[in-house]
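Let us practice reading a record.
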Amino acid sequence: MNWDDLRFALTVADSGSLASAARDLRWSVSTAMRRLDQIELELNTRLFDRRRNGYIPTEAGELLLDEARTFAPRIDEIERRLQGRDLSLKGTIRFTTTVTAVPYLLANTLARFSALHPDIVVKLSESSELLEIGGRQADVALRFVNEPPEHWVGREIGAVRYRAYSAAGDGKRRKRADIADLFAGHSWIDFSSSENRCSRWVRRNVPGENIKFRVDTFSSMLSLLRAGAGVGLLPTYVGDGDAGLVPMSASIDELTNKAWLLTHPELRRTARVQAFIAVVAKDTSRLLARSSSAAPRSDERDGLPSPRKRGEGKFPSPILSP
């Protein structure tokens, strides 16, 4: 027997008749009758005497109702507190995303969110794996995939595009190359993991002897690119804002991914989750739109990569007015 059954029995007793209880619950009388019959069958006990003047609790019914009335206020209080917690802008949000998203897309946005909602703590997990929302490993996820898992809900907030990049100001570099020319004519830097989609693309297209470095971390990829060690793939929201790099290709369509902000169906109406998604979606979609449609830089228009001053070409801060 569950609390809903007890609540129903209390409604019948308080209203004095099955018809009144059904009306209060917005049920049909037949539905209410089947529910009461099922409860009594499960308990193997008659709870109410059916009389012409109404439903009168039996001795067993009185015992059950007395106990139910004792803890009913406590149950109602717990429900109100839980509902209030979901409606309040307090608590913790477990947020998972990729290792590049926080430093290149989210840092200013997360700072802005914290200033707007100081009673919400954001617990970050940076991983290429999609953590399990159902097990409460994560409440919200920013993921770059074309098709999110079916048991998540959310919104598509933009597209992530990729280009080939190399060091800015390297005298050996020529004007932006056709992608086919990059395969044979340059040294490449690749990720070691075969699970990385960019790595799979490189291995399909670049001769093995031209891959001079295989790295495990994103920071190593960036360091080697800036040092002029070769050509490598980066998302445009990283590479286009880096003064130490120049693009060596247009965006590569087959590597384009959708950006999704996701949560669990049961959490999407929680106030703190709604507030978090609203801020992150607004800021991140603007940054992704800028990186996807940014006009060619001056050093690309004339075809000659040249050094830029530190900070030149970086995207404006994503801090937006509330």
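A brief commentary: The CA atoms of residues 21 and 27 lie 8 Å apart.
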